[in-house]
């Protein structure tokens, strides 16, 4: 239960006023329950003629409050009987019972009424916190996590917390109050019977607790397997073109069917154990009532009991009113055990360390008046170095190109500049200041990225171009589109800049998506550009249009270019050839050709010589 209470400690404080009201109305409902059940005693005594005592009015404060209340109640009943008869007195008590019950149920409703904002608010806060943490975590976190599993934690696990844990909140706060109030009254009525009851209840609790622990273990398996299924679905949808091209529908279908069958088996085991909770608690509760009924009845029949038969019936009614809250409490415990697995999986995201953070005393925002320098930089994802002691100067206004085989470390080196990852050794400086001394937002504000795969969103042309620049005017957006050679094809669509481009820009060609991405960078107007193979996946005509847009974008900016097509970087200020995480050659296009080394070999392979 530690996970449950730590969850409450983190998320309940903003709703403490609702919680106070909930507890107050729960206490009121419990007290009204006792008083309404207490009316059973005079009804039974009147029906069976068991109470023949004569009562006189007792002034308030003359003795203990409980004795005054009981005496004056019987005095009032006696007066009604003397004046109107037993039937009217019985009817009056019945009306009072109805009124007390109405007040009790009204209080119970109000307690639930004030619990609902807590439940819905906590679930909303958990979703917001997970999403905020996801966008805060460094990219390295997601290299070790399946996308589908992260989505499962955001959707399935949060839903499980809502259904199993949050739905049990009312039970967790209401039932203990009812149990404590009823136990207090049971001790006042007969402490001997209550001691006997308190010996029986823990035995039943131990039996039900064992099932709850096993339920939590199975539930963790269920949520993990749900993450596997979501990953499978996400990979299938993303790779559907390849699946169809290789006639692999049967293979992926068989893999999904197997994983889905495993999910079904685990879910079946969990549901069976969960459904065992109610009948088990029902049986144990009835058995406990039967034992108490036998024990108390034996005491009364033997004449050694301190309570009368009507009070014993009242005692049994109170005890029975404990059984239902106890059963609900055990059911809530089962639900919480089932939801604890989801809480743990959610906590793996919420407690994941954010390794890339702002400094305690950040330097002023960078401007770039001199140069960007990589100083003996080393980086590794695991153990093997991906970047191995690289030093590189990128002067202001220069265009530096990184070329080399796939896996040589080009993209990783570029990703170190905006701190998508942090260097293991060495440093990267802007105008002599280590980039770790800047706020992350300030550092990335001076950079624009255009990637090989244009990352677009299911929104309009205008919204995608203005992404990250919310204050841009329509005129600025249109001007950026013109510079990126995107204006004409945008205006050919049905609604122009207000046309939705579909999921990831699926309604556009590759060249059109790339030009929208370039327009977004143009609108941001950053002094530093990172172009990661921006034209490598395009046909010749699209490449020409995109290259024109890139040339427009690069004017007057400091640019780091990653290129496979060497024809696009002939005019770069400096070209660096990378192999196995090291820069093995550097110079202009003509210098490297004349040297006849690795770059010259790449040029020959692409037929550019």
Description:
By secondary structure, the chain is an alpha/beta fold. 63% of the residues lie in helices and 10% in strands. The chain has 22 helices and ten strands. It has helices at residues 2-11, 16-38, 40-48, 65-84, 86-136, 139-143, 147-165, 169-189, 191-238, 240-245, 249-275, 277-302, 309-350, 410-416, 440-445, 461-465, 474-483, 487-491, 510-524, 540-554, 589-595, 598-605, and strands spanning 371-380, 385-395, 399-404, 425-430, 433-434, 447-450, 528-532, 558-562, 574-579, 582-587. It starts with a helix and ends with a helix. The model has no long low-confidence stretch (mean pLDDT 80).
First and last CA, distance: 71 Å
Give unreliable regions as ranges.
none
Biggest sheet, spatial arrangement of strands:
6-7-8-3-9-10
**Sheet with the most strands?**
6 strands, mixed
Mean pLDDT: 80
Q: Helix count, per DSSP?
A: 22
